[in-house]
Amino acid sequence: IQKASLVVAGGYFAKLFIAPISEELLFRGVLLNKLKLFIPVSFAIFASSLLFGSFHSIGNIISAIVFAYCMCVLYLKTDNILVPIFAHFLNNVFAELIFAIDCNKVLFNDSIVVAIVSILAFISFILIVLFLARELKNIK
């Protein structure tokens, strides 16, 4: 039992701390910065976001690409890698909280809840795309 608790704690530590730090340093700190030396910034953002998304599970690829795109914009706008690291940390905390709250898997089995979440996700996606399109014009 103690070994299992240690494994669970290690998993949470990796998801909440190791992943945000290592992924942001790799995909934004190194890859994005290297790509933008050779290709236009908008293509560098797109390429690094696609690569980031490809390392995530099939059901999460699109959301991971959009998330990565947002992290690129945050990084380029602030020129501070700690900003996307913290945002990535918060994203993972919220994801783990939702998973923990819905331990009986009832939240997303209710068609009304799924419909409401889908509508909110669609609206959020449109707002994010509009914001990112506007911000992309301002990035040098």
Radius of gyration: 17 Å
Q: Which stretches are poorly predicted, pLDDT < 50 over at least 5 residues?
A: none
Q: What is the count of DSSP helices, taking H or I runs of 4+ residues?
A: 5
Number of strands: 0
The averaged pLDDT comes out at 87
Please state roughly what percent of the residues sit in beta strands, choosing from under 5%, 5-15%, 15-25%, 25-35%, 35-45% or over 45%.
under 5%
Structural class designation: mainly alpha
* N- and C-termini, Cα separation: 53 Å
- Oligomeric assembly: single chain
Largest pleated sheet: none
Helical fraction: over 70%
- Overall shape: it is globular
Q: Please write the string of helix (H) and strand (E) elements.
A: HHHHH
Which characteristics define this entry?
140 residues; mainly alpha; globular
Structure description:
The longest helix has 37 residues, at 2-38. It contains 5 helices and no strands. The protein has 140 residues and is mainly α.
Short summary:
The protein is mainly alpha-helical. Helix content is 84%, strand content 0%. Helix 3 (61-78) packs antiparallel against helix 4.
